[in-house]
Write a structure and sequence with these properties.
The protein is α/β, with parallel strands linked by helices and 317 residues long. Helix content is 37%, strand content 18%.
Length: 317
């Protein structure tokens, strides 16, 4: 652990790669290269060594929190003399577009599922709570997709509140990145999992009512642990452009894809288009809405330019 004078007034304990990896020394990695490739998001360069160094210790830490939470629930139930059903442990994963938060969330789901007792771990992304394109267009917000006002935050808070209260079969809308829209009449069922991983741009944002006042209930009120995936904006912008170029050669080739119109761009045109989208949408959203929530996270994964996590910041208890 690299907590010295420079960090003595920080609310975080800071771990370098070696000290963080040592926390899970001797723990078996429950996946192989093929499984990892299926989990990794396009453009997010990651290997098994990175999983063992960063994500395995994180999963071990989270398992400790889950176990402690269950023990507290059991002790409280005995003390109160009630039989309240145990509720899911909710983990939030936040960060910018293209920073690798989806890969982080999928890895946590896989690693936690392989932990002691083989807990049932569900993963839900907040993309499903974006307003449909027709509603965004009617409100003049289609060009601000991903900004706080583009989500049905009331529905999102209600969903997480229902999950956290232990309700049976809570449903989340489903988003399709190919069509760039909500899928009509399709829902994801969440039925009292042991752990819920909630991943999205907006999970740590406080949100405001239409009159500008703060809501009485925050999404983060229902979280047991939160992770923020962090990197320098210049690196995230480069990763976004690289991913856009890769999608132009793959997913955008599908005539039914929302972004099919970009498939025939030259490399130079595609590069400029991606930079324009970043400058107009993703960059401002990161600076004004996403990055300011970093300090609300329980743990921060700070990435280097090569996608590897260079250090881990854990909020002091």
């Amino acid at each position: 652990m690299t907590v010295g004078t420079r960090h003595s007034f920080s609310p975080y304990a800071v771990f370098d790669r070696a000290s963080w990896r040592a926390l899970a020394e001797g723990t078996r990695l429950p996946l192989d290269e093929t499984e990892l490739r299926n989990l990794a998001t396009l453009g997010d360069r990651i290997d098994l060594d990175e999983v063992a160094t960063v994500y395995l210790p994180l999963a071990e830490l989270l398992s400790l929190h889950v176990t402690a939470s269950r023990r507290l629930w059991a002790a409280q139930s005995e003390f109160l003399g009630n039989t309240t059903a145990k509720v899911p442990f909710v983990i939030a994963v936040a960060g910018s577009v293209a920073v690798g938060k989806s890969t982080t969330a999928r890895l946590l789901q896989t690693l936690l599922s392989a932990g002691p007792g083989s807990p049932r771990v569900d993963l839900v992304t907040t993309d499903g709570f974006l307003l449909p394109n027709a509603a965004l267009e009617a409100r003049g917000l289609l060009g601000r997709k991903g900004f706080p006002e583009s989500y049905d935050r009331r529905a999102l808070v209600r969903f997480v509140a229902d999950v956290k209260s232990g309700r049976e079969e809570v449903y989340a809308p489903v988003y399709d990145h190919q069509s760039y829209d909500i899928v009509p009449d399709r829902r994801q069922a969440v039925d009292r999992p042991d752990i819920l991983v909630l991943e999205g741009l907006n999970v740590l944002q406080a949100g405001r009512r239409t009159d500008g006042t703060a809501p009485e209930v925050f999404l983060s009120d229902f979280f047991d642990f939160s992770v923020y995936v962090d990197a320098a904006e210049a690196d995230i912008q480069r990763w976004y452009v690289e991913r856009f170029l890769a999608l132009r050669r793959t997913a955008f080739q599908d005539p039914t894809a929302y972004f099919h119109r970009f498939a025939d761009l030259t490399d130079e045109q595609a590069h400029e288009t991606a930079l324009g989208i970043w400058a107009a949408v993703n960059g401002p959203n990161l600076r004004h809405n996403i990055a300011p929530t970093r300090s609300r996270a329980r743990l921060v994964l700070q990435k280097s330019a090569d996608h590897s996590v260079r250090r881990v910041l854990l909020r002091k208890l």
